[in-house]
Amino acid sequence: MADPVLHLEGLRKRYGSADTEYEVLHGIDLRLERGEFAALIGPSGSGKSTLLNLIGLLDRPSAGRLVIDGAETATLDDTALTRLRGERIGFVFQHHHLIPAFTAEENVAMPLLIARGRPDAAMFERAGELLGRVGLADRRRQLANRLSGGQQQRVAIARALAMSPALVLADEPTGNLDTHSADEVFALLREVNRQLGTSFLIVTHDPRLAHRCDRIIELVDGRIVSDRANEVAAGRSPVQGSAEETE
Amino acid sequence: MKSWMPFEWIAALRFLQEGRMQSLLIIVGVGVGVAVIVFMSALLSGLQANLVRRTLSSQAHIVLLPAEEVARPQVAGEGALNRVQKQAQRLRSIDQWQQLRARLEGWPEIAAVSPVASGPAFAVRGDASKAVTLLGIDPGRYNRVVDLAGRLAAGELRVGAGETVIGIELAKDLGAEVGDKLRLTGAEGQAETLTVTGLFDLGNKGVNARNVYVGLRTGQTLLDLVGGVSNIDLALHDLDEAEDVAQRIAAESGLIADSWIRTNAQFVTALTSQRVSSDVIRFFIALSVSFGIASVLVVSVVQRSKEIGILRAMGATQAQMRRIFLLQGGIVGFLGSLLGSALAWSFLMLWRMLARNPDGTPLFDIGVEPALVAIAAGGASVVGILAALLPARRAAGLDPVVAIRG
Ligand SMILES: Nc1ncnc2c1ncn2[C@@H]1O[C@H](COP(=O)(O)OP(=O)(O)OP(=O)(O)O)[C@@H](O)[C@H]1O
Ligand SMILES: [Mg+2]
């Protein structure tokens, strides 16, 4: 069987120095297979963002094993982690972090530009294609900060897909959007998952959205307290009706 | 996006472009600093070149004297003449000076070689009598060491048999004009009556009052130095080499070789200390410019921490982040230096218009040399990059988690 996209074993994260040290994540075990579309839920302060940052290689665990797409991460230095992150992981943040000095197209092409070092026609072609996929083909040349919140988030999704990552991590991707835009964005994530087979791990506070995922992982006080398949969502026909239908 | 530009350049330029006001202000700041440095340098080198030129207008770069001459002059300013006045004993000739002349003419550093028979004499006209320095010269050669022909106030430079050229001060003292006769008497009593063919003004009152030029042969006769020369005057291609060349000639020929640098030691020291103090000022300007760049970039790192975090999340390495900020420093320095050079150029134009002699001619000649602009541009870029070291380190070391959450 192929490597899982994500494999965690006894992952721990401690903050603070020696005497004031406290643990936020107390040994997380988790496996995410290719093409899975999973929600990570839990009360505020339970450690969801902390976990996502560890998985995204933005931060290092205090203990435990973290394997991304078959690559052991414990022995890698910062540059190697950065490379791995750039190639295998896409991010969608709550506050649609685009770079305002660049256009929509340039933002989408940015991971490719960083990886290859110099711009080329192919990367802008790809950026245009991805913007078409998220329904923003006509906004290619617009500066990022001139777009609406929902549009910015869709650009961010297109950007997360630029390198064809194995895993997309989304930390409250719809948290800043109104219900309608949130539904649209969520539907888009679902569509990408179905069409490209990209795995998703989505942190959300919105139970409505969580229930549209195939799997729901619940974190409380730094421990996974439940991890269950969501039959309703998983059994549904692809593409059609992620946004409109409710469970 | 320009396709040839690497990612770091694109990001650096975009960041500068986006922080328009900030970038503009710091570039102007750098520009003013560079302008002051370039202006000062141009002014100083113009001023010094002018002073040196004036000082050397009546002096050889190097004077060769016979070795055993006892009374060595220590006098600045008037070179040849004081030297010969001081010696009481009979003039000595340089041995085999023709061969030496031929040899020195082969040196690449040496521009001109002029043997001179010079010594004390008296000039008499009517009741007036003056102690003078008699210089027997070959005008073709001498002119290439001291531009006598170019400094004539009246008449022409003709020193054939029975002819002499004197300074305007001496002419005044003796009441002589071109065409008048005067009588010259050497230390050993030889005397000759000569016709004044020209009056010179070498820009130095002492020289104008004392130097009396005659033909080499006349000089040799009057100074009882038949066939000999008392000294050989040299002009070099590069003034600054004078001391070095003088020492080499002295070592090779056994003669005494006095460079203008040695005979004008105080003057040269003054020039040097002027240059040192201006170096110090320039250094501190560069330092304050670099602090300015550094502080702007430090603020920019803080302002852009979120974007830095995003770029890091998308795979930008620490080294790439560092380069983006180093480049911003370099670009600010470079653009500032271009602005500064333009400013300096306008300052100089203005200065040239305002600083004039009473007769309307420029006080002295200065200009912005392309080399100076190139050095300023290179220097400012390097200073910018150095100033960006600390901000770039901070940008690279930024924790992406913190940056993104912020
Ligand atoms: N850099 C840090 N230093 C110290 N403590 C931290 C740090 N980051 C997070 N924490 C702590 O870790 C705990 C988990 O935080 P985390 O942000 O992961 O929660 P969360 O589940 O994402 O919450 P929310 O739903 O509000 O976003 C919190 O108690 C928080 O104070
Ligand atoms: Mg969170």
TrEMBL record, chain A:
Keywords: Antibiotic resistance, ATP-binding, Cell membrane, Membrane, Nucleotide-binding, Transmembrane, Transmembrane helix, Transport. SUPFAM superfamilies: P-loop containing nucleoside triphosphate hydrolases (SSF52540). Residues 6-246 form the ABC transporter domain. One of its GO terms (biological process) is lipoprotein localization to outer membrane. GO terms for molecular function: ATP binding; ATP hydrolysis activity; transmembrane transporter activity. Signal peptide: none annotated. It holds the Pfam family ABC_tran. One of its GO terms (cellular component) is membrane protein complex. The keyword Transport applies. Belongs to the ABC transporter superfamily. Macrolide exporter (TC 3.A.1.122) family. This is ABC transporter.
UniProtKB/TrEMBL annotation, chain B:
It is found in: Cell membrane. Residues 283-400 form the ABC3 transporter permease C-terminal domain. Coiled coil: none annotated. It is a multi-pass membrane protein. Pfam families: FtsX, MacB_PCD. The keyword Transmembrane applies. The chain crosses the membrane at residues 24-47, 283-303, 324-351, 371-390. Its main location: membrane. Keywords: Cell membrane, Membrane, Transmembrane, Transmembrane helix. One of its GO terms (cellular component) is plasma membrane protein complex. It comes from the Bacteria. PANTHER family: LIPOPROTEIN-RELEASING SYSTEM TRANSMEMBRANE PROTEIN LOLE. Residues 23-251 form the MacB-like periplasmic core domain. The keyword Transmembrane applies. GO terms for biological process: lipoprotein localization to outer membrane. Belongs to the ABC-4 integral membrane protein family. LolC/E subfamily. This is Lipoprotein release ABC transporter permease.
